[in-house]
Amino acid sequence: METYSLPSTEISLDDSWDVIVLGGGPAGCASAAAAGIEGARTLLIEATGSLGGMGTSALVPAWTPFSDKQKIIYCGLAEKVFNECKAGMPHVKKTDLDWVPIDPERLKRVYDKLVTDAGVRVLFNTHLAKVDAKDGEVHVITVVNKSGLTAYKAKVFVDCTGDADLSAWAGAEFHQGNEKGEKLMPATHCFVLTNVDEYAYLNGPQLHGSNPNSPIHAVVASGKYPEIPDVHLCSNIIGPGTVGFNAGHIWKVDNTKPETVSAALIEGRKMADAFQRSLAEYHPKAFGNAFLVQTGSLLGIRETRRIVGDYILTLEDFLKRRTFDDEICRNSYFIDVHWAKEEIAKDIDSMNKWEKTTFHYQPGESHGIPYRCLTPKKLKNVLVAGRSISCEQLVQGSVRVMPVCLAMGHAAGTAAALAAQLPDANVHKISVPDLRQKLLKAGAYLP
Questions:
Q1: Contact 419, 381 (CB under 8 A)
Q2: What percent of the chain has pLDDT over 90?
Q3: Among 99, 41, 44, 113, which Cα is nearest to 336's?
Q4: Are 336 and 403 in contact, with CB atoms under 8 Å apart?
């Protein structure tokens, strides 16, 4: 590929911020709100037109469990977001904690209120374009939107892009996929069907692929719908006569390579249409008159870059339910690593084989996540929260989900505000006991 040198030009610089958060998904919203609550002048930059990421723009239809099967463990700001989302859904009980459905439009407003109540300024439809870093310190970022290019400066930056864009562009070491840089988990393009017969849906066969009587097995076995590659199918009622789906897989997608995402979105829309048609044929009582009302404006991405931090969370840490002196939250979600294409689940036997590899905890069990997993080794004034934290690939299959991302974001934003008060804004030098005390005071679960 040929190269092109950009002409030298001057652009406006806004240096009025203590903390800038990149990415407005669960981790980013919690980070920005936490920093704002601590009194830091905070800017939240989001590439799309709404906050929430996977739970809103990507249409993921349900929260993964908020409990350890005994009690809620994703507390503080995470619990606040969860409860506010549930409050507007009459068919959800206040006591429900696990696999609770999501109303994506309500959740957008919940996040809007969370960050604006904390005094955070939000900049939508704005993309990171360039990172200027030297000697392990990010000095200026350049973003692009309808105003053109603008430069921003802050004391501390929190990378919640989901792909560690800020960190990678600043020179941080990272891993991607397995030890060879291959085999990223597949993506899923979520979608919504409406005009569903709720009674038939609730009283008919469970759609999940682990159910041998699910119609998805007949759909895949028939060969009539080649757009549907496997029996992965999760669904939840998200509103009256409306069901959200997390179904099917799309391989060879790298969210850091727009051409692969573009192709996957086209494939995903075809797949969603095939699901609507196939369910109308194989489960007509519930879906005979169903209408495909929406596909996600974002692809459901599970995995890209993982930073190399001061500590790498390991599978052994997960299996031994480890506790750390500097832990900033707990996690109890199972090892939810989706299949490589050659391991595709096309029937109930392969689904059962996958289930045996997921390492589910017993009730009351969890592991800690250390603050050191949020601190990139070679960067002084950058924190990372969300699916890109420092961990092994298998563990990323557990810590990538929304409840724990909210909890990590709460910690990262609080730490960023503490670091902004230091003379050199060094995130590695904050008082972790002070951070933990602030999190505990805010309701975090740190036994």
A1: yes
A2: 93
A3: 99
A4: no
Tell me the C-alpha to C-alpha distance, in Å, between residue 431 and each of 39, 71, 126, 418, 446. 17, 29, 33, 8, 16
Can you tell me the distance from the alpha carbon of 40 to that of 383, in angstroms, rounded to the nearest whole number? 15
Query: Assign residue 322 a region: left if phi > 0, alpha if psi is -120 to 50, beta otherwise?
Result: beta
Whether the model pTM is above 0.85 = yes
Task: Pull the structure tokens for residue 54.
Answer: 């996977």
Give burial (CB, 10 Å; 0-12/13-18/19+) of 145.
middle
- Dihedral of alpha carbons 163, 166, 167, 171, sign: positive
Q: Which of 332, 254, 311, 285 is nearest to 97 (CA)?
A: 332
Classify the phi-psi angles of 4: left when phi > 0, otherwise alpha if psi is within -120 to 50, otherwise beta: beta
175: helix, strand or coil? strand
Q: What is the largest CA-CA distance in the chain?
A: 66
pLDDT tens digits, 78-92? 999 999 999 999 999
359 Rama class: left (phi>0) / alpha (psi -120 to 50) / beta: left
Tokens 């692929």 sit on residue: 209
Q: Tell me the angle at which helices 215-222 and 258-282 cross, rounded to the nearest 10 degrees.
A: 110
pLDDT-derived band of residue 323, with 50, 70 and 90 as boundaries? very high
Q: Which two tokens stand for residue 25?
A: 């998904």
